Amino acid sequence: MIDLVTMILVSLEYGSLVMDHFATYPLLNGLTIPRVGFGTSQIADGEPTAEAVIAAVKAGYRLIDTAARYNNETGVGMGIRACGLDRSELFVTSKVWGTERGYEKTMVSFEASMDRLGLDYLDLFLIHWPACESKYTDWKEQNLGSWRALKELYAAGRVKAIGVANFMPKYLQPLMDDGMVPMVNQIEFHPGYMQKECVDFCQANGIVVEAWSPLGRRRVLDHPLLNELAAKYEKSVAQVCLRWCLQHNVLAIPKTVNPERLAQNLDLFGFEITDVDMARIDAMPEYGYSGIDRKFSAN
Ligand code: A2P
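A: This is the predicted complex of the input protein with adenosine-2'-5'-diphosphate.
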C-alpha cells in the first residue's frame, strides 16, 4: 500500500500536472531542489548582482546559482539579504574553482566563499571542474581530496547537499566508489548538446542533472527546428529549450538580467512538448556547443 502511494506521488511529482515554477526534484539525501534556477555568471559583483538576485526572487526564482569563479558572491549575498525572503526559502549554490582542488585548498576556498556571501550555510556546494586525466597524473587524488572536503562540510552541516559540475562518468565513478554519490552534476546541456551518456549515467544513479547554458548562451536561439516548434507551441525559442530540459528531468539554470525574459524563463509549466517533438530536438546534430570543456579538459 505504501509503495503504491509512493509510486503515485513520484509519478505526480515527475508528471506535468503538478508542475509549477515552485516544483522540485528530489535529491539523494531526501531534500529537494527547485526545477529552475537563476544563473548569475557574468553579472558584475556588487549592486548589479544584488539587483539581479532581488529581481529574480521577485519573479519567483528560489534557486540562486553562483561560484567563486563568477567573482560575484558578495553581490549574491547582498541580494539575498535584501530580497525580503527568509534565507530558508532560498536554495543557494556555490562552487570551488579548479585552482583550489584538493582537501586543504577546497576547505579554504569554501570559507572564503562563505565570507563573501555572508551566509551561515550553503544549500549546495559543487566542485566546478574535475582534474582531468590528460593533464594531471594525480587527477584521482585531486578530485578525491576535494570530495573529502565536501563530504566533511556536509557532515558538519555547513552545506545541505554536495555535488559536482562538468564531471563525466569516468570522473564521477571514483567519487561514488569512495562511499558517497554526488547529489548533483551541473553540465552544459541544451538542444544540440545534450551529453546523453552522462545524463543517462547520472539519472540511473539518482544524480540530479543541472543544465548550465540551457540556451547555449543564445547560440541555439536561431536554430530553424527550435523556431518552428516555438511557433507551433506559441512560446519563445528559449521557453522551448527550457521546457525540453524539464521534460528530460534536467534542472535548467538560465541567466538574464532582463525583467521580461526573467519572467518568461519561469513560465514553462503551461505547455508540453510532444514525444515526437522531443525526439526531433534530441536528434539535432551538435549545435551551439561552447567548447569550454575542451578548454578546461573535462574529458
Ligand atoms: P539577456 O541577459 O540579455 O537576456 P544561457 O543561460 O544559456 O547561458 O544564456 C544566457 C544568454 O541568453 C544571455 O545572453 C541572455 O541575454 C539570453 N537570454 C536569457 N533568457 C532569454 C530569453 N528568454 N530569450 C532570449 N534570450 C535570452
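The longest helix spans residues 139-155. The first strand starts at residue 24 and ends at 26.
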